[in-house]
Amino acid sequence: MYRDTPEYFVKKYLNILDKIEINSEILEYVNEFLDDWGDVIGVHVRSWWSSGMPRYAWHDNKLYENEIDKFDSNKKIFLCSDNDDVIKHFKKKYGERIIVHDQVMHERKCDVFGFHHDDVQLVTDGFIDCLLLSKCKTIIGTWASTFTEVAWWLGRCESIVIIPKPENVTQED
Questions:
Q1: N or C: which end of the chain has fewer CB within 10 A?
Q2: For 22-61, b where at least 16 C-beta lie within 10 A, e where not — what string?
Q3: pLDDT tens, 62-78?
Q4: Please, what sign has the CA dihedral across residues 122, 125, 129, 131?
Q5: Contact 157, 139 (CB under 8 A)
């Protein structure tokens, strides 16, 4: 619902989120990463590649490209994804405009619903991506993924969120 979320709930949830204490090393890293960042478009691409769910059929890089291309062609793009092939695709297409937080998952294929949830670095990297995404004034997110929404909440509900809807989403989805 983003901008349509009733103010009552926004205040209530932000009050709860204010009680979360984030590790100071993570905050320091995020703040250093943000130095000289400026106004960046945040893009979260969930490809669902390893989920074994029908949602994999929803993934299409073109959905995000169509939204990115509506912005000034000099604007930097912070990109986070569950799939290194997606990151490579966008780096090839948008070159130096792409900013990523390099992480362990980008070095090897990781089953996002499998073995790695006990790998502290992978979980930390995902959280850092979410925090960085939360700092963007505009976020282009993934249909049916809560990652974008969590970033919006962590950013105190201030970002404009764009969620391109895949054409093959049905009423039942």
A1: N
A2: eeeeeeebbeeeeeeeeebbbbbbbbbbeeeeebeebbee
A3: 999 999 999 999 999 99
A4: positive
A5: no
